[in-house]
Write a structure and sequence with these properties.
- By secondary structure, the chain is of the alpha/beta class.
- 37% of the residues are buried.
- The longest helix is centred in the middle third of the chain and has 18 residues, at 147-164.
- The protein starts with 9 loop residues before the first strand and ends with a helix.
- The strands form 3 sheets. A 6-stranded mixed beta sheet has the order 2-3-1-4-5-6, with helices on both faces. The protein has a 4-stranded parallel beta sheet with strand order 8-7-9-10, with helices on both faces.
- The protein has helices spanning 22-30, 73-88, 103-110, 128-137, 147-164, 200-211, 224-230, 244-250, 260-267, 271-279, 303-318, 352-364, 372-379, 383-390, 393-400; strands at 10-16, 48-54, 58-64, 91-97, 116-121, 142-143, 182-186, 215-219, 236-239, 256-259, 289-294, 323-328, 341-344, 369-371.
- Helix content is 39%, strand content 18%.
- The chain binds guanosine-5'-diphosphate (GDP), iron/sulfur cluster and magnesium ion.
- Magnesium ion is lined by residues 22-23, 35, 43-44.
């Protein structure tokens, strides 16, 4: 059975003060000794994460964090890591040591506006009066006595809450094209393609065509002209961003064009912010710094795009001296002050919540952001076609023909 990729799983993160029992509950829920449990405050230093099946909900990623109350210098850096986790959490468990409840800390956590369940650990140690008053004040909270008697109830409650989250994972193409549309997917099999398989966005978009009763044909750039000729009418060509320039030339102007990474960005939300960000490329000035955000550290796939192709093309297109800083995986700069533009990769390894939080954060800081796919579309002269298609103008245009 193919494992659900982490980027498609709901992320559940465990927060709370040090020694509240976060790692104990993380181990109980995951059924393994993944996190170190200790009476020593600050034992969990880096977040620990584990992909698991939460029955009856489905596949999730559970993340244990270091705690939100450490005042030491080392503690500050741990807290920063904990806060970074908040960006990608779809849901949280806030663990409280019920014998030492700190309402101010909980209220501060609530300001993050993360959907969560409040879990009172060490419930068995409470006197009856305190237990009664906590239960009265927090009716939706979950008491946790110990692993043996409380884990199943907590799992069930968590599954129930996750099932309530609205699913924003809408279709890639189903709302852009009608049933029966003909879509050609251009997938270069070059040295960067993984041996013997397709990459995630290719598989997802092919599947989306099938789900929406479209007719999908796959080919490499060399066969694109021939593939187009074989159909009476082709509605859309979806290309790997690397091949934008060639595919743009081969595809007649009557056929819509987009790329895998643009469709992924749209499905993960925030497309309008990215479209705005890409329009600021023409305003770049000498000495501007550009923040490059790569969702994973990889050996070769895409590395060249972010490290070589985009910088070279951007310098050539703008004629400006530009500097590039790189952050990969879930790393993200503390300050955005020195940047003129951010370019996020397609983000196939990052979950939707992380991408949306990043983009919202950059927006609030006034930093325009675009992504690799849009950037390559602009730099290869194909952007206007892509934009028209995304904005739905394409349907009217083809209907009028
Ligand atoms: N008595 C009691 N001790 C607990 C319970 N849960 C955790 N502890 C203890 O509290 C300490 C801190 O637990 P840990 O899970 O490492 O807390 P974290 O810092 O929030 O990850 C450890 O010594 C645990 O054994 C509980 O339900 N009852
Ligand atoms: S799109 Fe981003 S996350 Fe996906 S493989 Fe490329 S660099 Fe990694
Ligand atoms: Mg811990």
């Amino acid at each position: 059975m193919e494992k659900t990729p982490n980027s498609m799983r709901r992320h559940v993160a465990i927060f709370g003060k040090t020694n509240a029992g976060k790692s104990t509950i993380f181990n109980a829920l995951t059924g393994q000794q993944n996190a170190i449990v200790s009476p020593q405050a600050g034992t969990t230093t880096d977040p620990v994460q584990k992909a698991m099946e939460l029955i009856p909900f489905g596949p999730i990623v559970m993340i244990d964090t270091a705690g939100l109350s450490d005042e030491t210098a080392l503690g500050q850096s741990r807290m920063q890591k904990t806060k970074n986790i908040m960006r990608r959490a779809d849901f949280a468990l806030y663990i409280v040591d019920a014998t030492d409840y700190d309402s101010a800390a909980y209220e501060e956590f609530c300001q993050q506006k993360l959907l969560h369940l409040l879990v009172f650990n060490k419930w068995g140690l409470l006197d009856e009066k305190t237990a009664f008053s906590l239960k009265e004040s927090y009716s939706n909270s979950v008491p946790f006595i110990d692993e043996t008697s409380s884990t199943d109830a907590l799992r069930e409650k968590l599954a129930e809450e996750l099932a309530k989250l609205s699913s924003e994972r809408s279709t890639f193409l189903g709302d852009l094209l009608p049933k029966g549309s003909v879509v050609i997917l251009v997938m270069p099999v070059d040295s960067e393609a993984p041996k013997g398989r397709l990459i995630l966005p290719q598989v997802q978009i092919l599947r989306d065509c099938l789900d929406n009763n479209m007719i999908a044909a796959c080919c490499q750039v060399e066969e694109l002209a021939e593939t187009i000729r074989r159909f009476d009418k082709v509605d859309l060509v979806v290309t790997d961003s690397q091949a934008f320039a060639a595919v743009n030339q081969i595809t007649p102007p009557t056929i819509a064009l987009t790329s895998f990474s643009i469709l992924v960005a749209r499905q993960k939300g925030s497309i309008s912010e990215l479209v705005y960000g890409s329009s600021t490329i023409e305003n770049l000035k000498d000495g501007d710094r550009i923040l490059m955000l790569e969702g994973c550290t990889h050996n070769s796939t895409h590395e060249d795009i972010g490290r070589v192709k985009i910088p070279n093309l951007l310098r050539k297109k703008t004629g400006k001296k530009l500097d590039f800083d790189y952050f990969s995986g879930y790393q993200f700069p503390d300050s955005l002050d020195n940047y003129a533009l951010a370019i996020q990769c397609g983000g196939c390894m990052l979950n939707e919540t992380e991408i949306k939080s990043r983009i919202r954060h950059m927006n609030e800081a006034g930093l325009p952001v675009t992504n690799y796919g849009m950037c390559l579309a602009i730099l290869s002269g194909a952007w206007n076609r892509c934009k028209n298609f995304l904005e739905g103008e394409w349907n009217e245009h083809s209907a009028n023909e």
